[in-house]
Amino acid sequence: MAMNADIITAAVLVIGDEILSGRTKDKNVGFIADYLTQLGIDLKEVRVVSDDEAAIVEAVNALRKRWTYVFTTGGIGPTHDDITADSVAAAFGVGIDHDARAMAILEAHYAKMPNAEFNDARKRMARIPFGADLIENKVSSAPGFRLENVHVMAGVPSVMQAMMDAIAPTLKGGRHMISLTIDSGLGEGIVAGPLADVQKAHPSVVIGSYPYIRGDIFATNIVMRSRDQSKLDTAASAIEAMLADLKTQQQAQF
Amino acid sequence: MAMNADIITAAVLVIGDEILSGRTKDKNVGFIADYLTQLGIDLKEVRVVSDDEAAIVEAVNALRKRWTYVFTTGGIGPTHDDITADSVAAAFGVGIDHDARAMAILEAHYAKMPNAEFNDARKRMARIPFGADLIENKVSSAPGFRLENVHVMAGVPSVMQAMMDAIAPTLKGGRHMISLTIDSGLGEGIVAGPLADVQKAHPSVVIGSYPYIRGDIFATNIVMRSRDQSKLDTAASAIEAMLADLKTQQQAQF
C-alpha cells in the first residue's frame, strides 16, 4: 500500500443493522464508487458495521489512518439507534454537543413545517463533534459533518447523494483514471492465459477480466484502467491483437 | 462483542477491484444477508477489498478470528487477477497446489465441452489450499472451498448462490431471529422520543427505525427483532399503543 503523491484514496464505511440483516439493500456503495472514480479518487476499501459504538470507533480509526478520505453513511437521524455522530466524536477523542449552526438550520427548517415540532429527538440531529465543519443537506436540511478526513453522511440515498455534491468541491481529486472495456466474446478460460502475458508486458495498465453469463452465453469483458491515455491505447491494441489471434484459432477448430 | 452460545455470527468479505471502481454493483452482500437471517445467523460485518494479497490476508485473518463464519466472494476464476485461493492459503500459513479432487471435477467438466481445452489457465481453478474441503458448484463446476471457518465462493451471483445452497447444511444455525415490521405512518422525528422509551422497557428486543421517502411522504418503518416470539409480541403491543397515542395527539392539533 505504497502512497504516491498523485494517488488519492478513499474508504466507505456503511453503518447500520438494517444492511447487515438484509432488510435494506445498500445502494450507496455503488453510487459513491462511481462518483469517486469520476473524480479520479481510488476507492480502496469498504466496511459495513452494525449500530454499535465499539464497532464504529474501531472502523473509523482504522480507515481514517490508512486512506486519504473516509465517507460514512447512515446513523445520523433523530432516533436512539442513530449513534454515528457520538461514535465519530469518540473515535477522535473530542467532545460533542448541540451545534449552534446546525440548531439554526434545523430551527428554520421546522419553523416552515406545520405540525412538526422541533422536539428533543430532532434536536439530536444537531449534535456535531467539536471542530467539525457542516455538510449541507439540500434535501431534508439536517446536516452531515466533516472532521479532518472523515465525511459523515446520511443513509437515505437521495440525502447522501446531495451531500456528496456538497462535499465534491472540497476534495482534491487525483488525476482521473481512464478506463476502456472490450467485450472479448470469449470464455474467461480461453482469454486468461494470453491476457496474463499482456498484463506482464503492460505493467502500468491495470487489466481485469470480468466473466458474465447472459442466457446461455458465458463470456468475458476485459477492462483496462490507467491514468495515461497513451499507455491505455497501447495495451488496448495488444488485447485486440490477442483476441484476433484467439478467434482465428477458434475458427480453425471447425 | 460478547459471545453467547446460541448466537452464531458471520462476516462477508467481497474481493474485487471491479466493485471498488463501481464498474460492477455488488448483489452478493444483500443475498447473503437475507440468507443468513433465514438461517438464524447474525451477519455482523462486511468488508470489500481490492485484488491485493496483503489486503485479502489482513481481512481474512481479522474476520475469521472474530466471527463464527466468514464467507468470501470473488477472485477464484482462471485469470491472473484471481488471487483469492493463494491469498487465503497465505492467511492460514498453509501450502496450495492443484487439488486432485478439483482436477477430476474440472477434467470431467471440460471433457463434455467441445472446443474447450482444459488448459493451464483453467487448471488454476483447481488450486486449493492444503486441508480444505471443496464446495460444490452446480452451475459451472469449478468448486469453492472451506478452510476451517472460512468459505471461499465465486463472485458471479448465480454461482455464489448455488455454493451457498451447498454450504447451508454444514452450518450450525443459530436460533432463528424473528422480525416484525410496523409502518408507523409518522415521521421519524415524531416517533423517535417515545420509541426510545419503548426500547428501554424492552431490552431483549432490538428495535430499529427506518425512515423512507415515497413521493411527498416522509414516514418511518419500525422493525423489531428477537429470538423470542412472546417478547416480540409484548414489544409490538407497546409500540402499537405508543402509535395510537401519537396519532391522537396529531389529530388534536387540527
UniProtKB/TrEMBL annotation, chains A, B:
SUPFAM superfamilies: Molybdenum cofactor biosynthesis proteins (SSF53218). Residues 11-174 form the MoaB/Mog domain. PANTHER family: NICOTINAMIDE-NUCLEOTIDE AMIDOHYDROLASE PNCC, NMN AMIDOHYDROLASE-LIKE PROTEIN YFAY. This is Competence/damage-inducible protein A. It comes from Cohaesibacter celericrescens. The lineage of its organism: Bacteria, Pseudomonadati, Pseudomonadota, Alphaproteobacteria, Hyphomicrobiales.
